[in-house]
Specification:
The complex is a heterodimer.
Chain A lengths: L3 E12 L2 E12 L3 E5 L6 H8 L7 E6 L2 E2 L4 H6 L1 E5 L10 H11 L5 H11 L15 H13 L5 E5 L7 H16 L3 E6 L2 H7 L2 E6 L2 E7 L3 H16 L1
Parallel strand pairs in A: 3-8, 3-9, 6-7, 7-8
Antiparallel strand pairs in A: 1-2, 1-4, 4-5, 9-10
Helix pairs in contact in A: 3-4, 4-5, 5-6
Chain B lengths: L1 H16 L1 H21 L7 H21 L1 H8 L3 H6 L4 H30 L7 H26 L5 H29 L8 H25 L3
Classes of the chains: A alpha/beta, B mainly alpha.
Amino acid sequence: MADEVLVAKDIVKSFGRVRVLRDVSLTVRKGERYVLFGSNGAGKTTLVKILSTLIAPDSGELLLFGGHIEEREMDVRARIGFLSHSPFLNGDLSAWENLDFYAQLYSVEGRKARVKAMLKKVGLYHRAYDRVATFSSGMKQRLGLARAILHDPDLIFLDEPFSGLDIRAQDMLNGLIVQLSEEGKTFFSITHDPAKGFEVATRAAVLSGGKIAYESEADDIEAFSERYKGILEEERL
Amino acid sequence: MSAVKAIFLKELRVEVRNVQAISSYLLLTVLILATFRFAFAATDPPMDQIAAPILWITIFFCGMFSLTPTYKREVENETLDGLLLAPISRSSIFFGKLLATLVVIFGMEFFAIFLFFGFFPVEVPDLLALFALVAIGTFGFVALSNLISAISANTSLGAIILFVLMIPILLFSVVMSAVGGTARIFAGDGIGEVVDELRLLTAFAVIFFATGYLLIEYVLGD
């Protein structure tokens, strides 16, 4: 129980008459790199938004760091990082200004030193004072990762983090994820690409038809891929 | 408090760097005032009768065009979720954006009023009364527009909704009271004579501000 960072029980979410999630239950433990696969429209993004507290489920129970979000909303949010295919960066501001802005929102101690360290970590310190609008997609994504981990969160959500990145940027992002995981961070990632997702996963699951259709340890990519293909095939029928 | 300050400064930075938008507001101000000046040149009506509506039409339209992007920009840049995920209250976002918008609008109004007196040489015995009316009227205007901007940001018809919702409310509240008060100031009245208009504008400002503060949690929710 003590190492359960995220517990979701019977999460249900509908948009209008469309039921996107049906009784989704899953548990993520400390230090895990949990990767959720699913086809487009499977409900992955909706699920990650619910788990990260961005939107509320219609029903079901969500426990983060052992408690309900309503009980200590700000404390929970301060321990969550989120990186999506959109890095949440303002193009009119420089890399430094963007990180400094988020550092203020998260009341990061030793703000300037932390911003500098994060920019160095993602290899963008030499572009610190350039406007983000002039950055490539890969650079924006790296800066987005710096933003997501700036406040030293315990749980980091990744929503299709590799989309739009070239191979080099993907490898760099993967390397950073593994490095942070070794430092004790927990990751919950969603993707539709098994090859990319499996490179970092320690546990994997498939979301299909709004439910967790399959879940296993990420130790056998071939067996998982076969099962994943089978589920996608069933979806098509 | 630090979140409000951070959002306020961020908004100001973005506004200041948006040179194209600033020059558009300034150009629009010049165009509106110049159009009225030339439109009334032939008939030459008494200045104290037309000056107040012209001043407020200028403030109103320039304000409307400059207010739209506040929340829309967050949606377009996909940065709104970044704000909503942060451990800050939704009201911090509301206050930060409101203060930044107020500073931008006050700056714009300063330019508009300065230019207005160039085009329309009206005698104002009580400048303090005029500034009080403009300041309180602007606060109500910005408080309402800030809320409607948040409501309309997630819709594809955002700008249209902003205008459609705001114009009738503002015309019957802020604009009518402000024009009435300003006309009396241009006619020679002092701050003591426009207390009723100032009270009415203050009441509208408080109502719009309180409504925004109370609703922002739901407006920015899912």
